[in-house]
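Section 3.1: Structural characterization of target chains.
Under the original work plan, the team committed to producing a structural model for every single-chain target entering the pipeline before any wet-lab resources were allocated. The record below documents one such target. The sequence was received from the expression subgroup and is listed exactly as submitted; it comprises 307 residues.
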Amino acid sequence: MFLELINTDIGYKTPLIKGVNVSLSIGEVCLLIGNNGVGKTTLIKSILNQIPALSGEIFINNKSIKNLSAKEIAEQIAVVFSKAQIPANYTVEDLISLGKYIHYPYYFELNVNDKKEVAEIIESLNLNQYKKLTLQKLSDGNLQKAFIGRAFAQNSPMIILDEPTTHLDEDNKIIILKLLREFARKYNKLILFSSHDWRLAKEFADKIWFVKGQKLYTGIAEDVLSAHPDLSDPVLFDIHKNFIPPHISATEFQKELLYSLLQKNFKNDLSPYHFTFSEGIWILESNNSHQNFTSFEEIILFLRNSL
């Protein structure tokens, strides 16, 4: 096992996650999920020894992180945080090349193979047209891809990414998730990443770490999903705290679509409403009245006029 956490409590003065016993091997892709505030980023920072674990042991490549310097940890784990400081006057090519300098003195000239690998990473991320552009001129999505490119260039056995698909459109989310999986397989890397887009991200992960109720549940992605039916309930990750969903009788797919639609558009208590999906028709029951809808747009228009 490359990464091991043994009887570990994660948190600051008091635990956010208790009794963690998990491990990951080189070549695996693991998705870290859970509600905001449950300790996902704290867990990542504890693995990096940026926040010491409250108890227990964390091992990287059979060595306790307590005995490793920051440089030694960086040689083993490349990191991409969702909020990173942007180096002034750096181009995309400069930032991705920076990943190589963990192995060299700052004054070292990259060799031919290094430069070739940087060029291949830029190509794989569809950043060729931006490679000479300064980072301040990039969109949020392309900037995120450039930081991921720097992690790839670092050539560490493990990569940790905190919300790597933030700011990306659907096409670029899939590009990044595919690259993470392909990178793990092709170069035999261990990848741990967190994501709010977990329903998409799970398609590219071997394992899931699910944080809930101060516990970390882990296993093959499908086993974790099967063991936790609440993960199929879109109420797990609320956007509006005042939003209360209606009762929905439908397939899981249609239920999730309707929930997503209502959550994005309303902050109301919709519990008096009951939606049923049958033969392509949404039936709304409320206050002894019935309404039929053939599209989600009709539902939105009706509720906007009614609430």
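The CA atoms of residues 59 and 65 lie 6 Å apart.
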